[in-house]
Amino acid sequence: MPNNRNAFSxxxxxxxxxxxRAVHHGWRRVREWGAVTAEHPGGLRFGRIGDGTxxxxxxxxxxxxxxxxxGAHCVIGEQVxxxxxxxxxxxxxxxxxxxxxxxxxxxxxSHVVADTRVAIGSDTYCGPxxxxxxTNHSYDDxxxxxxxxxxxxxxxxxxxxxxxxxGSVILPGAxxxxxxxxxAGAVVRGHVPDHAVVAGAPARVVxxxxxxxxxxxxxxxxxxxxxxxxxxxxxxxxxAEPGETPGPSAR
Length: 251
Prior knowledge:
single chain
């Protein structure tokens, strides 16, 4: 006599495959329908949301949208928090509190908490789980619980073209110049000049650009060569193979 479990295992496996496909197909649909765009804002009413900007579903905590302005072609990952004000339903005045320039990318699980002005410049890319805040807890009174003390607030300004690595923290009062690199896990406060690389907690400048000398200290690897616009699939495959890059004579 065959074992009943073995006899029905092909049917059970088939049902599992069908159910798995249905779940994944359904989740793709939910993610598509739940995304927020200018054309399909859902329940969110931002002060501005530019063309081509998309907030992936599921979104994180979002409130104070009236004072949040998102530029065009921004990519906001899943579970990203965007808040303006200490709490929902506050009147924050006539001016925007949180602004993202065109082409800003916020990686999955990032938080931008703007209790006062936070501005992120165009084409700034943030990795996953970046935390940007204009507010920090106060601990002036040693007898009062820190969570009950009124926080300190300072504006944050991030220049265009920056790259902010995974898990970085940008503290209140920080100002980052143009094309700044923030290493993963760095904690940034104060002023960071244009074309600098910062790392550590607290972050410090570890590399900077000199117009006459170039990068100081020098980069350890050569700059990547852009892929030619007319490259064929065969050439791209050859470049992906291990070994030396084919020279002009190999073309």
